[in-house]
Amino acid sequence: MSTPLIGVLALQGDVREHLVALAAADAVARPVRRPEELAEVDGLVIPGGESTTISKLAVLFGVMEPLRARVRDGLPVYGTCAGMIMLADKILDPRSGQETIGGIDMIVRRNAFGRQNESFEAGVDVEGVEGDPVEGVFIRAPWVESVGAGAEVLAEHDGHIVAVRQGNALATSFHPELTGDHRVHALFVEMVRANRTAES
Ligand code: GLN
């Protein structure tokens, strides 16, 4: 089967780093801004950045509803940090007007690990990632307050949930795209491949 085509939602955030990580994990990666571009991809990454900005721009560009529709239909998606917030069914402390795409039955708390100057790195054991702990880069990171029955916790740090999967949706509080370790992206590329096989 041909190499999967994976989009990176390119409204705001660290798009380039995800494009590089996906290419290193054997996917063809390209930025996605418009509904027509979204329609073409086999999977989608929602980058880190600022979830309030991504939310506003998604509405402004007319891509919020198409995103919700594709995620509802089972498009494999992976969100890091702000991207995790975008995939949460509920935000504990949303800014006014802040919306999410949803897709994972979880409640997230924004900036839960502290402000910018409290950013840190820590080894994180992620279910489904073989070998050494993943180097987790946490930048004004959210944590997951609670998950519903359908969502599976893949990792915790300091007693807080930092990686979750529900069906074809994956989310991490931290940023594997910033470390040069592509194992979490490889896990996502595998999810995309498995979904294509199931659909074909
Ligand atoms: N705190 C940011 C937000 O609420 C996320 C930060 C990040 O993506 N590194 O969107």
TrEMBL record:
Binding site for L-glutamine: G49, E50, S51, R110, I139, R140
Listed Gene3D superfamilies: 3.40.50.880
Source organism superkingdom: Bacteria
InterPro entries named in the record: Class_I_gatase-like, PdxT/SNO, PdxT/SNO_CS
Protein keywords: Glutamine amidotransferase, Hydrolase, Lyase, Pyridoxal phosphate, Transferase
Gene Ontology MF annotations: glutaminase activity; pyridoxal 5'-phosphate synthase (glutamine hydrolysing) activity; transferase activity
Catalytic activity: L-glutamine + H2O = L-glutamate + NH4(+); aldehydo-D-ribose 5-phosphate + D-glyceraldehyde 3-phosphate + L-glutamine = pyridoxal 5'-phosphate + L-glutamate + phosphate + 3 H2O + H(+)
A GO cellular-component term linked to this record: cytosol
BP GO annotations: L-glutamine catabolic process; pyridoxal phosphate biosynthetic process; pyridoxine metabolic process
NCBIfam families: PLP_synth_Pdx2 (TIGR03800)
Function statement: Catalyzes the hydrolysis of glutamine to glutamate and ammonia as part of the biosynthesis of pyridoxal 5'-phosphate. The resulting ammonia molecule is channeled to the active site of PdxS.
Xref: HAMAP family: PdxT
Family that this chain belongs to: Belongs to the glutaminase PdxT/SNO family.
Quaternary data: In the presence of PdxS, forms a dodecamer of heterodimers. Only shows activity in the heterodimer.
Protein's recorded name: Pyridoxal 5'-phosphate synthase subunit PdxT
